[in-house]
Each structure stands twice: as structure tokens, then as C-alpha cells.
């Protein structure tokens, strides 16, 4: 949600990919792709954003904390990032999502959005459940 120099962003993508592979992720056993090359992520985020009210997003603690740490009013990208996360989850009809404690509320938002969408348009998205990571 913070502007990056294009060259730095490209290098970060390569570095992140290298780190994922170095951790042992086997590309022969899983799909590894760059989210920004899949337009359906942004398209679904737009649709879901039209079903999500702003007061709900403003109550998320991550919004409040990051906005305060940036010493600003915050950006629309920061505010709507949880909707993009919901789109990332729901696009693949995920049923279980590994999350840390700090992301539980964002997953609850994804659950609420899925339920709202299903109520309005018919059963389409499974309601994902959290798999809490234990560190």
C-alpha cells in the first residue's frame, strides 16, 4: 500500500520468489504465480468492495495502527487492502486459510463478505475457516 520505485518493486518480487523457493516450496507440487498478473484478483476486489461498508473497514485494528504509524490520514489502498485479501481467498474458493492471530479479523471480514455475497446472489463462495498458526 506504499508507493515503491518500479526497479525496487521488481527486485522485491524476485527476492520474495527466491525466498519462497529457498524455504522448500516445490513448484512441481504447487502453483507459484505473481498475483498482479491475474486480473481477476483486482476485479473481484472491486465487486466485493461494492458490497463492503466503509465503517466496517475503519473499525479494523490494522487500519488504525498502520494509519497512526504512517502519521497520516491513511490511503484508500490501505483501507481497502482487507477487501483485496478477501478476494484473494474467495477467488480460489478456499475453505481453510492459515492465518496468524493478527489476521483473524481480516479473515472474519472475508467470511462476512462471502456470506453477504451468497445471500444476495446465491451460494457461490464457501465460507473459509481459519487455521491458526502456532508460533
What does this 3D model show about the protein?
With 135 residues, the protein is mainly alpha-helical. The protein is 56% helix and 6% strand. The chain has two domains: 1-32; 36-132, Rossmann fold, CATH 3.40.50.620. It has helices at residues 6-22, 39-49, 54-58, 61-69, 76-91, 104-121, and strands at 96-99, 129-132. The radius of gyration is 16 Å and the shape is globular. The two termini are 27 Å apart.
What topology does this entry show?
Blueprint lengths: L5 H17 L16 H11 L4 H5 L2 H9 L6 H16 L4 E4 L4 H18 L7 E4 L3
Parallel strand pairs: 1-2
Helix pairs in contact: 2-5, 5-6
The tally of strands reads 2
Indicate the CATH architecture of the largest domain: 3-Layer(aba) Sandwich
Q: What percent of residues are in strands?
A: 5-15%
Label the structural class.
Answer: mainly alpha
Strand numbers in spatial order across the main sheet: 1-2
Q: Looking at CATH, which topology of the largest domain would you report?
A: Rossmann fold
Could you report the average pLDDT, rounded to the nearest whole number? 92
Number of domains: 2
| CATH class descriptor name of the largest domain | Alpha Beta
Strand-and-helix sequence, N→C?
A: HHHHHEHE
Distance between the termini: 27 Å
H/I helix tally: 6
Helix content: 55-70%
Per CATH, the superfamily of the largest domain is HUPs
Low-pLDDT stretches: none
* Major sheet characteristics: 2 strands, parallel
Could you tell me the radius of gyration in angstroms?
A: 16 Å
Which descriptor suits the 3D outline?
Answer: globular
GO molecular function, one term: tryptophan-tRNA ligase activity
EC number: 6.1.1.2
InterPro entries: aa-tRNA-synth_Ic, Rossmann-like_a/b/a_fold, Trp-tRNA-ligase, Trp-tRNA_synthetase
Family: Belongs to the class-I aminoacyl-tRNA synthetase family.
Amino acid at each position: 500500500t506504499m508507493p515503491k520505485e518500479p526497479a525496487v518493486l521488481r527486485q522485491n518480487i524476485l527476492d520474495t520468489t527466491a525466498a519462497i523457493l529457498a524455504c522448500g516450496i516445490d513448484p512441481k507440487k504447487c502453483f507459484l504465480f505473481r498475483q498482479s498478473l491475474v486480473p481477476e484478483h483486482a476485479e473481484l476486489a472491486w465487486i466485493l468492495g461494492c458490497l463492503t461498508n466503509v465503517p466496517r473497514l475503519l473499525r479494523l485494528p490494522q487500519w488504525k495502527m498502520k494509519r497512526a504509524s504512517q502519521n497520516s490520514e491513511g490511503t484508500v489502498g490501505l483501507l481497502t487492502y482487507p477487501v483485496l485479501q478477501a478476494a484473494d481467498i474467495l477467488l480460489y474458493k478456499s475453505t481453510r486459510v492459515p492465518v496468524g492471530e493478527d489476521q483473524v479479523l481480516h479473515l472474519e471480514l472475508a467470511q462476512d463478505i462471502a456470506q453477504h455475497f451468497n445471500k444476495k446472489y446465491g451460494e457461490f463462495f464457501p465460507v473459509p475457516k481459519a487455521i491458526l498458526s502456532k508460533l
